[in-house]
Predict the 3D structure of the following.
Amino acid sequence: MIDPEHLLSQYEGKLAQAQAKSDAIRENLAHLQVTERSPDGQITVTVNDAGNLVALQLGQALQRKDGAAVAQDVMRTLQAAQSRIASVVQESMAPLLGADSETMHLMMDKLRSAQPPPPPEQYVPGNGGWGPTEPRLGSIEDDTPPPPLRPQQAPRPSQHRPIDDDDFGNGSILR
């Protein structure tokens, strides 16, 4: 015969283990951050486990650079940090979830689909190293924006004929 007290204590023990594991995962993710640096070391970005920017440091030398170039470097460095999130989460969660568990696979699929693809081959992970900025295969040097669309002309109002009660052609009976 099955002892209900024994079953209940086993169930409570499993619940306590699941709660402790959940708390450990939540704590681990709450403190997980990825930091990347630009090749010249002037830009440092830090993102959290969701890929959100939590810290940005810009060096003094950037004041002499063109604003568009700085923005592009910031975005590249941010993308590099975001592309590393899945691997960092996998490393930190493997001991808790199991490296080959279904939960780990689901989590990794979700993270990889939410983050940008890794930067091009010129990028050296961890160092923030980007290669030269010369045109790459597929870029178009003379790409110009398309001409603006011509404004739509309003349709010309049709010339109305005088209202004639005996005329049943070309008109709706609903006015």
User: Anything to note?
Assistant: The chain has four helices and three strands. The longest helix spans residues 4-30. Residues 28 and 49 are 10 Å apart (CA to CA).
